[in-house]
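Fold sample X.
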Amino acid sequence: MRLNPFNTGNIQVKGSSGGGVGKAGGLGCGTIIIAALGYFVFGLDPFQTAATVESVQQGSQSSGGTEMSEQEACTANEYSREACDGLQSLNQTWARVFQEQGLGDRFQQPTLHLYSGGVRTACGNGSANMGPFYCPSDQTIYIDTSFYDQLARMAGGGGDFARYYVLAHEYGHHIQTITGISGQIRSQQQRVSRGQANQLNVRMELQADCYAGVWAGKNRNLIEPGDIEEGMRAASAIGDDKLTGGRVSSENFTHGTSAQRSEALRTGLRGDDSACDAYTIVS
């Protein structure tokens, strides 16, 4: 995908390496996201992950990592530069969408935090084992770029569009936060059974996939041959059914099947963000 080079004057980026964990707020939706990623991407027990994060949040301390400037973070490696290019494009695209809908005053840019090893977040401890995640409490997307090598192995091949899809998916969670969608869904999850709460989470994840497609669909002039196929392979590779290999029942899925995730991305690629509303309209 042919994106313009980033300009640190119009993106918000942080960088750190060799980070540790500090005290943060109580166990919340950020922990749920982290735990789910740990399980469905890397096979970690989600409850074990959540318990670990909770114990950290209750006061465990360790030293932090070395902070980097925006320029240093964005030029640390090829993946970092690519992520900053993607963030800039996502900001521009979604700012325009909000403006066109008369909601320009509601748009807020997220921060991208590129780290290595571990990182402190307002949602608790983050680590490379958890994969990329979004923390709504500080409106920040956290990525250890070494994940992209893991993604390439999972998807049977890499490609920049597959990596952009991951970033755009996390950006989709930011859109859900600033529009209030995530708050509404989390509120509903508190009033239903665990299985129903999981299904609501699936809806959230599929909508984020759809939003990722919207971004790409609104920048079709920048898409190169093979990009869409890369994105579809990545979406399929991280479906709950494929990652769990039948070891987990569908009522415990939290992100959607390979077919659902691919279809959500395909829906968004039409470029109509309103089509993504269907995923989170629940009774």
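Fold sample Y, listed below.
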Amino acid sequence: MLCEGALMVAAAIILSYFKLQFLLAGSISFAMIPIIIFAVRRGAGWGVAAGVVYGTLKFILGAGYAWNWASILLDYSLAYGAVGFAGLCKGRKWGLPVGAFVGCFARFIVHFISGITIYKITAPTEVIGVTVANPWIYSLLYNISYMLPNTIIAIVAGLLLTAPLKKYMRGQL
């Protein structure tokens, strides 16, 4: 499982370099998909561990932005660790698409918390052409602007990969 997890983290790192930079600092990519697949195959514990490793490496390898150590933990290690909660759908018929939703929503919650605690000092500011002074609204708008497209991509990928990965997800390969 360690080797499989390392391969999925490596795949996620590679996919993270192919992204569409969106709005202020959020981006849209396929990077979460290998972590979601691994989590749904191996369970939430292994998925969270792989997500934490991926998020930490993403920051260390220079693809990250942080204001302080707390934002490193929240926006990278814990946020991508939360993607591993997709593993709660292990063994379910529609595990990949539902797991994608669960993992993406969990990541959104961590980013939202980061926005209202750490990045609240950036408010008032403009998000999607609207000036926002409330840190809660700012965090919601900012994080949903890139997490919603990422979530849709992950769910669609989960739907498309459910049949081709059926044996793999069951451990028959």
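Sample Y note: The radius of gyration is 16 Å.
Also: The chain has one domain: 2-170.
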